[in-house]
Amino acid sequence: MMTSSVLAASVVSQHKKKWMQLLLGLVCMISISSPQYVWALFTRPLMEKLHAPLAEIQITFSILIILQTFFSPLQGKLIDRFGPRVLITVGTLMTGVSWILLSGLNSLFELYFYYGVVGGLGTGIVYIGVVGLMVRWFPEKRGFATGMVAAGYGMGAILTTFPITASLATAGLEKTFWQFGLMMAVVGFIASQGLKIPKGDDAENRATQTINNIRSFTSKEMLRQPLFWLMFFMMTMMSTSGLMVTSQMAIFAEDFGITSVTILGMAALPLAMTIDRFMNGLTRPVCGYISDRIGRENMMFLAFGLEGIAMTFWLLCKNDPVLFVLLSGVVFFGWGEIFSLFPATLTDTFGTRFATANYGWLYISQGIGSVLGGPLAALLYQHTQSWNLVFGSAISLDIICALLAIIILKPWRKRFLAQA
User: Which residues, at least 6 apart from 419, have a Cβ–Cβ distance to it below 8 Å?
Assistant: First the structure.
């Protein structure tokens, strides 16, 4: 009886700990979300301060995304070696300090280095580290857990968008960077101190040695598996598809005549973008939660197909402002879930022991998608002077990826796990 009571108490304690880890991970993600999601607020003030054209200022954002994604395998390996608390602490401090240093900004080089390099590496460490930690704490709810922390990154900037806008208008660029950089560093540092690997993680691996020795692949072993490259290809396709349209939204909304329209007293484009940000965050835990129950590939098929269908109607209803706003939310709901479904699927397939480093390799696909999506869409529009080919390409990628998930990935992964 006493043994049963102690065991029950241990289970309850572990249950509380993992939800606390989820909360801390969510706070860490929120603390580093602003550099990517409020960047547009800084472009005009930076142009005026540095007397530089928009094209030169926008290079900063490209550096941020490239370093955030392309260095993720190394960052993941360091996190697996030194532990999540140490590296995520470093990442949150780097992110906040990058803005503090920008308070003394005097040149484009400083902008590129502080915002792009320091900020990109810092946000990348935190993102990879938190996602990798959640798949270890929630083996039975990986989709939901990774979706929740990814939602924190996608929606966290909602908390700072209006305060930063007000601060830029009243306090100026330098003071805004200093104040919000300090806030990001302090909040991220405090939250990261409580992060830890599950207590029984190593013991559990030893207890289930016959399974984990087969399923816990190192990154080197995983990269030799064609199944991984199918996942990488699919995530690249979905990243490219979503960014082809979402990165150009303000431009084609203007071409469609949406920017001059108001809905319920609100400008249509800002309203659509607000809804989009919310839906882009909401879809991550929702679709992750559903995938925990109906299967990863089934959820991929539904979500990717939904995005393709929504984009089709978005294009067909381009002259209706109300439908434009509503369908934009559906498009973002069908796209943002890739940040919960793919890391969960990867860990389900290749194990938890090296999950952080392994996801670092998969996350490079997001960087490739960001490089392809924006410039490719702009190039297609430039040559055709029409958005039809841009939308057609994005829709095709969605439908192809949905079919790959259900026809190729699902049976292949089933065979792979059966052999393991």
Answer: none
Distance of alpha carbon 49 from alpha carbon 69, whole angstroms: 29
Q: Which of 27-31, 63-67, 383-387 has the lowest mean pLDDT?
A: 383-387
Amino acid identity of residue 115, one-letter, is Y
Q: How far is CA 307 from the centre of its chain?
A: 17
Residue 9: pLDDT over 80: no
**How far is C-alpha 80 from the geometric centre of its chain's CA atoms?**
20
Give the integer Cα–Cα distance in Å for 355 and 367. 19
Q: Which amino acid, one-letter code, is at 205?
A: N
Contact between 287 and 147 under an 8 Å Cβ cutoff? The reply is yes
Continuous segment of H or E residues that includes residue 262: strand 262-263
CA distance 128 to 73: 9
Identify which of 65, 34, 56 has the alpha carbon closest to the alpha carbon of residue 247: 65
Q: Give every CB contact of residue 400 below 8 A, 6+ residues apart in sequence.
A: 237
Minimal CA–CA distance to 18: which of 142, 108, 125, 123? 142
DSSP letter string, 14-75:
HHHHHHHHHHHHHHHHHHTSHHHHSHHHHHHHHHHHHT--HHHHHHHHHHHHHHHHHTHHHH
337-371: per-residue pLDDT in tens? 898 899 999 999 998 888 888 998 999 998 888 87
Residue matched to tokens 């990717």: 304
- CA distance linking residue 111 with residue 420, whole number of Å: 49
Look up residue 67 and give its two tokens. 């370093």
> Tens digit of pLDDT for each residue in 295-324?
999 999 999 999 999 999 988 988 888 888
Q: Of the candidates 143, 161, 142, 144, which has an alpha carbon nearest to the alpha carbon of residue 30?
A: 161
**Residue 112 DSSP label:** I
